Amino acid sequence: MASGSDSRPNNGVCVFCVHSVKWIPVLFLVCMIIWSYYAYVIQLCALTVLSYTEKGFYLVGYHILFAIFLWSYWQTIFTPIATVPKKFMLPSEELEKMLNASSEHTQRMIVENFAQSLPITNRTIIGAVRYCDKCQHVKPDRAHHCSVCRVCVLKMDHHCPWVNNCVSFTNYKFFILFLGYAFLYCIFIVATSLPYFIEFWKVSILFKYKRLMGNIEGSGKFHILFLFFVAAMFATSLISLFSYHCYLVLHNRTTLEAFRAPIFQLGPDKNGFSLGKYNNFQEVFGDRKALWFIPVFTR
Q1: pLDDT per residue over 122-140, tens digit each?
Q2: Is 45 one of the catalytic residues?
Q3: Choosing from 160, 166, 186, 246, which is the catalytic residue?
């Protein structure tokens, strides 16, 4: 696992406020998850479903999906990003030479000479070694500078505000599992609440209560109605995003590489890192098949 120093700022009231604001999307999503738990477990299962067998099936299936969904989400948020190893940092004397160089060509030659012993194949659009002026080091293949994290991130896919973290080398598996289990979580809610959602509309239109809805009070109806709509909306959004990232995994691409092909000495090539679909999958999920779909490290 690559390592490096984390250069995220942590000083001053303004910086604290900026960092706090970044957590707003995460807090919003967490609040939605907590509300969905209340709406499903209390309003639907405890107060609405009459059959104890049905209650048991719903509660067991729901809590299994809920637990693994939250586990994946936690891992995606709190897994530290992998930064650039120190061997890619320019030595102080070389950095001094580059900063005092009289031309861009001279600067490029200094970086080229330093990078000769480094395991890199990616180049810039003009064929030069990729160098980060902000972090002052050579960029490894597939590494990019994140303006939010203020550090270069290994195999960066994108910075996701919903997890307040870069989706990258260390947590990409967890991000994929988070999307997949979030989709299953929403689909399970939609499928199991659908009969009660339909009955609610029948009751609302016909103005009469049937036995199936006999336990639902006014606020309970709202929670079940809104739960169905929210779960269906998130499921629709998640399936497209999840499918897209499955496609990227099978082709060994990141989102950044899908929009701009990585450049090698022979030119741009979107398939430059592809090892074949099975090997591409293993690169993300590891070679321990029993742990592929569990949010734990498998590399």
Answers
A1: 999 989 999 999 999 999 9
A2: no
A3: 160
